[in-house]
Each structure stands twice: as structure tokens, then as C-alpha cells.
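I am still getting used to C-alpha cells and would like to learn alongside you. To get us started, please write out a protein record for me. Once you have written the record down, we can walk along the chain together.
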Amino acid sequence: MIIPVASWWKSYWNLFILVLILFNSFLLPIQLCFYAYDENIFDSFDYVTLVIFWVDIFLNSRTTFFNNNNEEVVDGKKIAKNYFSSSHFYIDFLSAMPLKLFVTDAI
């Protein structure tokens, strides 16, 4: 499955991911600073969000890109190599890691 970079549903998916990131950016400081933490609600949301971020990593590794000649690359191996060697992958990977693994005392 190769996903065209200009597909309409990929645009909506990226918008959905942006909303999750913004929501997490507001929710995380509240959890850390005020210990406003209802385990059932926040744990469930955290786990669902993490699964969605892992799905996003998979989708990004299958999404076409434009090379230096402005040609859309549709070869799966080239797409994956380009994504996994980019800084986007490292940011996505870190955002998909459960925070509780690193700061268990704070949360």
C-alpha cells in the first residue's frame, strides 16, 4: 500500500494528528504540574493516542514524496528509506513513546 502525498484523506489524517498533538501539549503540563490525574480517563486517552501515533509512523513510511527532480517517488523501499533516515521519523518515534517509561515518579 503506497499512499500518495497529495491524497485528500492523508490531509485529513495529518489534521487529526495535529489536533492530537495540540491536545496533548495542553494536557501534559496539567498532568505534570497539578497532578490532575484520573488514571482511567488519562490512561485510556494516552494509550489510544500512542496507538494512533504508531499508526501515523506506519502511514508516513508508506507515503510518497518528491525527490530533488520534483518527481513523486512511489517505490516502497525508497519511501521507507527516505522516511526512516529523516528527522521526521525521530520526532515521530519519540512522540510515540509512552512518557510513563521515562518519568514514572512524576506522573
Remarks:
- The chain has one domain: 8-101.
- The CA atoms of residues 52 and 91 lie 15 Å apart.
